[in-house]
From TrEMBL:
GO CC terms of this entry: cytosol
GO molecular function, one term: DNA binding
Domain UvrD-like helicase ATP-binding, first and last residues per copy: 151-496
InterPro entries to which the protein is assigned, alphabetical: DNA_helicase_UvrD/REP, P-loop_NTPase, UvrD-like_ATP-bd
Protein name, as recorded: DNA helicase IV
Organism: Catenuloplanes atrovinosus
Amino acid sequence: MREHAEALFATGDKVAGDSYTAEQLGRHMARRVLELADDPATPLFFGRLDFGAGEHAGHGYHVGRRHVTDEAGEPMVLDWRAPISRSFYRAGVKDPQGVAVRRRFGFVEGVITSFEDEHLDRGEELGTASKILTQEIERPRVGPMRDIVATIQPEQDELVRADVADSLCVQGAPGTGKTAVGLHRAAYLLYLHRERLRRSGVLIVGPNRAFLGYIAAVLPALGEVEVAQSTVEDLIARVPVRAEDATPAAVVKHDARMAEVLRRAVWSHVGKPVEPMTVPDGSYRWRIGEEPLRRVVDEARREGLPYAVGRERVRARVVSLLLRQSEARRGDSPSEAWQRRMAKAKPVTDFLDAVWPALTPEGVLYRLFSDRDALRESADGLLTDEERELLMKRPAARTARATRWTGADVVLLDEIAGLLDRMPSFGHVVLDEAQDLSPMQCRAIARRTEHGSITLLGDLAQGTAPWASTDWAESLRHLGKPGAPVVPLTVGFRVPAAVVELANRLLPSLAVNVPPAESLRRDGWLDVRATDDLEEETRRAVRVALEHEGSVAVIAADAAVERLGKALGEHERVEIVPASIVKGLEYDHVIVVEPAEIVDAEPRGLNRLYVVLTRAVSRLTVIHAVPLPGPLT
Ligand SMILES: Nc1ncnc2c1ncn2[C@@H]1O[C@H](COP(=O)(O)OP(=O)(O)OP(=O)(O)O)[C@@H](O)[C@H]1O
């Protein structure tokens, strides 16, 4: 198939009739070649289904990462997303779905090394006792995240294959496969609704670029090369961030009440017509009285259109009033050119600028943050005096353009942009680590998924932002998907049981109501060490870590990273990572240096520590010179 696609790509321009077709065909074939690109580390199939009953009785099918057909076009391997493949993940003794035998293949570096059969027709079912599953989850992690198509679990599969119209929220303890589920769901939806979603787009939103880099290879490995991946910040960036808010100001700016403050601020610009309008037109002069002008403005306001659309609606209505006068006087219909001229006539534009002025998000926010009266009016009954003071920029820049905006300002600018105009909507958005999204960030996503669905993934216990969610129902409301189901995942595939047990001690102190994780992993170990010499003990721990295969991370409070880096020097396979960016990542061996310092570094330090402790795939070493934080002991 690959050779065929490559040959077509090479000769495509010779068969195409014209340059446009050649370009279209070229792009299509280039994509096809990319989609078929093979990863030599993974075989073409990982399973087989032999049906004993039902419409496929007597047939056997291989299941793999994509459809593979032979030269005659007959299927050799079924895509894991195809309807029949569902049985590979969901059939069981209780509900065999016609499957007599399910076979799983184990492989190492692209070579098949084992297989495992379950004769469902004879009552055999392995579930999580599958050795191939165990091998897969215990394998040393090197490099970026991999797909899990060969071993998706039934409860995960149910989420992956949920209907495209359904938004859902997955509350999952660390390592339960939320990220994996979200990525596979994107791939599944693209398979089922390729054309529609290609047009509207599928987007993956992650917490930071390190995380996006870590997951970047998963979808291409599944043949999906056209999914956008972004942080919320990059998604809504419209001006550069050149300043930082102190936390109290940022907290107010991210609060849901700001939506109403901004709505009022935008609409406060609409005024009342106070004089008639006169428009010269050759030898005529048209006149519209104050009353009809007021009616036009009131009607447009009542229609609930975005502000900028409303302004154009008013312009169009004024022109139609002029048109009616002209028709009455001249007895014929004026041309379209005449209408365009009237729309741009100075008295019409002057009128609009007076009662419905053109706005920019920057202009609106600048005025709000620099004009005390404007802010008081828009925030009346919503923000306290102290909160308003936090918002006033002092000293204010001289103009909107000269303002140094903060990250939180950019979220507000986006909200205003959404009040001014419509935004295009994605077909589906996967939001990872969503517990950290503020209400205002959720609204930014809601604006971009008005006609699409979302998969919300997160863990309330891992919320570290000052505005982190403590209730999924509320996040879903801000996202414009109230009532979407919240589904728990509790079986952990990453963190060994001993490490989960340690991390779970923190849960009661985190003030969120989430089910604790249960680990599938009986291997791995935990080593907690008190020491007088942190650096020496860390060096020792790194030496021990390097005796094993896989990735190693030394995780410490952000402020300690530079010092540790100097003390440890460079090692291949060892990363020194600040606690603030490890969310969503995993390493075979994690060395946590001075938990108390990680906790003390920020208001939600215990949540941060919970994240840090749950990054380990196989081994966790905890080193401390001062006592461990209370809940851990
Ligand atoms: N069904 C599965 N088969 C094999 N491995 C799996 C399966 N589900 C999850 N994993 C593996 O478990 C690890 C954790 O998965 P993932 O990162 O998706 O979890 P998460 O819930 O997003 O974690 P966190 O809360 O820490 O962000 C990954 O290495 C993933 O590949």
